[in-house]
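Shipment paperwork, digital attachment
Item: protein structure file
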Amino acid sequence: MFEEPGIMKQIMQQDILAGATASPTECKKEPMNQKIVIRSETDADVSAIAEVTAAAFKTLEISNHTEQFIIAALRAAKALTISLVAEVDGRVVGHMALETGTA
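Attachment content:
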C-alpha cells in the first residue's frame, strides 16, 4: 500500500472524519457522538472540499500540496465517478472521491 514508513501514521493523524476541526495544526477533538452525514457533493461544497483537502495534506511530507487542484481539475473534466462529503452540523469535514481513469 504505502512504501514510505510512517505515511499511514501521518495520514491517520489528520483525523478529519474523527472529529477534528480547523486545520491539522490547530486540531481539536470534539465528542464522537456527533452525527456524521455522508452525501454526494453539491456545487455549494466546492470551496469547503478544497479547504478540507488542503488541511488534510498540509503537513504531509509526501504532498506537493496540489491535491485540491487535482480534485478541481478532475471535477471540471467530469472525471469523478463518485464524490462524497462528510458533514457534521451542516459543515463539510471530509471528502472522498473516486476517479476510475483509463490506461
